[in-house]
Amino acid sequence: MHNSAIIAFLALSASVTAAPYSPFPLPDGFPEPSPTQLAEIETLAQGTLPNGALPSSLKATGVTTLQLIALNEIFEVAFFTSLLSNVTNNVTGYDAAAIAPLDYNYVIDTLTAVVNQEQLHAAGVNGILANAGETQITPCEYEFPVATFVDAIALAQTFTDVVLGTLPEAQAAFAADAGDESGLVPLFGSVIAQEGEQNGFYRYVQKKTASASPFLTGGSPSFAFTALQMFIVPGSCPQDIATLTAGGLSTFGPLEVITTPEAQNMTLEFAAPGDVGPDTNSIVYISGQNLPVTVPISTVTSIAGYSHFTASFPFDSGFAHGLTIAALVNSTGQTFPSNDAVAAATLFGPGLIEVG
Ligand SMILES: *[C@@H]1O[C@H](CO)[C@@H](O)[C@H](O)[C@H]1NC(C)=O
Ligand SMILES: *[C@@H]1O[C@H](CO)[C@@H](O)[C@H](O)[C@H]1NC(C)=O
Ligand SMILES: *[C@@H]1O[C@H](CO)[C@@H](O)[C@H](O)[C@H]1NC(C)=O
Ligand SMILES: *[C@@H]1O[C@H](CO)[C@@H](O)[C@H](O)[C@H]1NC(C)=O
Predict the structure, then answer these.
(1) Which keywords does the record carry (predicted)?
(2) Does ligand 1 have an atom closer than 6 angstroms to the CB of 80?
């Protein structure tokens, strides 16, 4: 059994004061590189943007889905730009070579490929939006609640896990929209695999098995939208957030996972900034490709405006290693048929639970 680990975004946010970060435009011209700059990005990314025809029109759900993906990809460009800079410049805490058997140049080569690949993901998605005459997404200012290489890699694994749960939902949306968007399904299949390759590296760095579980945890767009906003300086890109909200995405209240979870049945303590009670609320877990699991909550106490409460974490009843999403919903004893149904009933979430 491997060591268990957690990234509770909010716990980290509370413990580390991050400075707003915006590296844009990058020296390579991103987000608006010239053709010469784009060719250089493609060289460093070890491949080119797709050169096939793009959809000329998009349905409303497809537009919102692509805008959410673009918001995430641009965040990832910012994150990996910062991480690459920290490692390259030997910022205190970022000595990647201290983690056997990693090597300074190998980590720099890997992060250089990743940051350029993420630039092409972002440029590609915005290119699809532009080709259909839809609103593109722009950079925001960001805050990263990490100050060491190990924590940054654990965070990268967690947000990549969230992306890996969201992109299949995007594929389903493109397929259901039909028409011009069906060509996007295999395109994003290749992006899912690409992000999975990245995540194998992030897990390896943490001495976790490279692949987490047979079927990775799914998601729902509003969970990804809410999680992403934990890294966006409030008010730094109001139009993008408003565009996505108008497109039907919700921003939930935060759900903090207080207990460090382990890969076994246990009780978890949560906290949420609002009134919570066992007669009105329950916790729902999304893990692997299984149906959501609903559990009651108990022992509610109020601490500094937060409701603290406990719920069982029945890991041994078929949960996946890697990411599990927790959500506090507005009902008790309810069985949810899908992740989207959980999101529709969510008040606070996603609580992001990682077990080795
Ligand atoms: C890079 O280092 C700075 C200074 O320690 C830190 O604030 C920032 O979060 C780091 N970035 C990443 C992605 O780890
Ligand atoms: C950072 O440290 C590595 C050795 O781990 C060294 O090779 C490299 O030159 C250093 N880089 C800078 C910018 O100081
Ligand atoms: C884990 O919890 C579930 C749900 O309560 C229960 O069905 C199962 O028997 C437990 N497994 C172990 C190994 O304790
Ligand atoms: C509670 O969930 C239901 C869906 O099950 C939804 O229709 C309703 O708007 C939700 N209420 C609140 C207060 O969020």
Answers:
(1) Signal
(2) no
**Residue percentage of the chain with pLDDT more than 90:** 93
- Closest by CA to 232, choosing from 81, 79, 29, is 79
User: Going from the N-terminus, what domains does the chain have, and what CATH number goes with each?
Assistant: 3-246 (no CATH), 256-355 (2.60.40.10)
Q: Which ligand is nearest to the CA of 250?
A: 4
Q: What residues are in contact with ligand 4 under a 6 Å CB criterion?
A: 330, 344-345, 347
pLDDT for the residue numbered 270 = 98
- Exposure string over 18-55, b if 16+ CB within 10 A, otherwise e: eeebeebebeebbbebeeebbeebbeebeeeeeeeebb
CB of 36 closer than 8 Å to CB of 159 = no
The pairing of beta strand 256-257 with beta strand 266-272: antiparallel
Is the pTM above the cut of 0.70? yes
- Name the DSSP class of 300: E
